[in-house]
Amino acid sequence: MGEIPILQIGPLLLVTIQTELHDRLAEQLQEDILQRVRETEAEGVLIDITALEMVDSFISRVLSETAQMVKVMGARMVLVGLQPEVTMALLELGLKLTGIETQLDIDSGIRRLGYHLAAVDEEVPGLPGAGERGHGTG
Amino acid sequence: MKDEEKTKAQLLQELGELRPKVAEFEVMEHALQERVKELNCLHNLRQIIEHIDKPLDEILQGVADLIPPSWHYPEETCGRVVYGGKEFTTTNFAETQWRQAAVIAVGGEKGVIEAFYLKAMPELDEGPFMKEERALIDTLADSLRLCIEKRRAQEGLQEAHDELEKRVVERTAALETAQRDLLELSTPVLQIKDEILALPLIGTLDSFRMQNALEKALEQIVEKRARVMIVDITGVPVVDTMVANHLVNLADAIRLMGGTCVLTGIGPAIAKSIVHLGINLESLDTRATLEQGLARAVEIIARKES
Amino acid sequence: MERVDIHSEEDIVRARQCARDLSLSLGFSLVDKTRIATATSELARNIFKYAREGRMEAEEIRDEQGRRGLRLAFIDTGPGIPDIEQAMDEGFSSADGLGQGLPGSKRLMDEFHIESAVGEGTRVEVIKWLK
Questions:
Q1: Cβ–Cβ under 8 Å, residues B104 and B83
Q2: Which helix (DSSP H) or strand (DSSP E) does residue B202 occupy?
Q3: Nearest to B66 by CA among B99, B115, B103
Q4: Is residue C117 within 8 angstroms of chain A, CB to CB?
Q5: Which of B81, C40, C43, C50 could be disulfide-bonded to B88 (CB atoms 3.0-4.6 Å)?
Q6: If you measure CA to CA, which chain B residue comes closest to A108?
Q7: Cβ A111–B259 below 8 Å, yes or no?
Q8: pLDDT confidence of C92, banded at 50, 70, 90?
């Protein structure tokens, strides 16, 4: 098990990255996510990168691969919290994160995955088991 | 004839003829002494005034001190210079009724240089004072005037220089602010509805402006939690490959932030260039008018609601 | 001048942090700080990946007009780049984005200089000026 916590919220997994992501840690995270998807039979994975100060080509590739891998396992991945300055630098680098679904924040991410939060609390994304399936087209 | 052979009457006559001559010489010698004093005074004055670095106060005091030794009765003379609200006096100073003065006629702020006799003296040309002393005090006053005016001019020049520099700094700062304000004004992000923002782009879109617009747009998306950004190019006269690339970049950025970009304001001319240039805008929603763009935005929001 | 030796993955992070600290003390805007960190990551990773050994040198600089900036040099004694033009050509990078390092870094920074000789090594120098 790696250092980045993976939280389960009903059928979804929430990964909040708050530390500097070096290469090995990123690969370990990928591994951990796939393990947990299998263990929990998760339907969606939310990766929150609000705290990431930079996304380079390596991290971009790892995220891209993870999205594809998660999809192959029958789930969907949504990336949230991309900061404006990180977005700009990423585009200047020549990367577009194609193939990765992105949303503004956790709330939009959850809705994108086709779910609603039962609790109307912006701060805390609900307790495990609180999410319920809606009629989302996503 | 030798003096022993002369008669008493003849000697007395010679003596009588000599006396006035001696008296004359005494007067001439006295006058010469006075002239020497004046010359010394002028010489010293020159030396005092020539020092550009000396503060003015020192010069004025120096000139006041020049007065007693240059006047007819040095031990009974005291001097004073008044200028700029200050007084410069000799150590033995006392104001009396026996005064000889000259105005230091500097424009705007006059001064005065004065010589006083501490006690009554024999009457000469101007009260107890000589006409030569009048000439001297006038010369002193005039020299001081010139000296003060020169300094004023120099100060004025320095002030003008400093003022100019200050203005340049202020102007530069003002220009920078104006430039920033202009930039602000030229890329306003407007909130149209909940979750719908609009960015009207106007004029030529260079790299710098687009970067600025991009930064603003993304910041607003985060702040207003918007999901659709309508980018209107009605005010953009030319769309070439470079501009198109900027727009595609903008759309990509908006998409990465989880939003959708709707490009509006595409008239026939621009539609033609886009197709002729082979520009691919398929990653964006495009509409002819802002109204159509707004309708599309509302659609997108509605559809996104689960 | 700060120097970070690069021979492990952790060193890439160290290089980023060094560049970030310097850009912070110089007072760069948030966007520029991010650009600097991103370019550093790419160029430092290039050293690690292709040369195995190398270093980053970072220092604050000034030009004749008194403008301040940050200069980063990435130096290695690796195999060198046989065709620099090709390496700088975007179309040549691999699909997964790993070849973006050079042309991407050039876009992120204000100045970009590269020297390389086969068998001797490579030196990439980038500069970002404070606006």
A1: yes
A2: strand B196-202
A3: B115
A4: no
A5: B81
A6: B258
A7: no
A8: low
B252 vs B266: CA distance, rounded Å: 19
CATH 3.30.750.24 assigned to domain A6-112? The reply is yes
What is the rounded distance in angstroms from the CA atom of residue B187 to the CA atom of residue B182?
9
C113 is written with which tokens? Answer: 């200089």
Cβ of A90 under 8 Å from any chain C Cβ?
A: yes
**B259 in reach of chain A (CB within 8 A):** yes
Residues C44, A58 contacting (CB under 8 angstroms): no
pLDDT at B124: 87
Q: How far is B245 from chain A (nearest CA, A)?
A: 12
Token reading at B125: 């040309």
Global confidence as pTM: 0.65
| Tokens at B197, concatenated | 């923002």
- In a mutational test of the B interface, the residue from A47, A48, A83, A88 whose CB has the highest number of chain B CBs within 10 Å is A88
Q: Which member of C33, C45, C100 has the closest CB to residue A94?
A: C100
DSSP string, B219-267: HHHHHHT-SEEEEEEEE-----HHHHHHHHHHHHHHHHTT-EEEEE---
Rg (CA), chain C: 14
Of A82, A109, A116, the CB nearest to B257: A82
Q: What is the mean pLDDT of chain B?
A: 87
Find the residue in B nearest to A107 (Cα).
B225
**C37:A54 CB<8 A:** yes
How far apart CA B136 and CA B42 sit, in angstroms, is 8
Tell me the percentage of chain A whose pLDDT exceeds 70.
Answer: 83
Q: C90 and chain A: CB distance < 8 Å anywhere?
A: yes
Between CA B1 and CA B238 the distance in angstroms is 129
Q: What is the pLDDT of residue C95?
A: 46
CA–CA gap between residue C99 and residue C46 (Å, rounded):
9
DSSP label at B278?
T
Confidence of residue A127 (pLDDT cuts 50, 70, 90): very low
Domain boundaries, chain A: 6-112
Q: What angle do CA A64, C44, A83 make, to 5 degrees?
A: 45
By percentage, how much of chain C surpasses pLDDT 90? 63
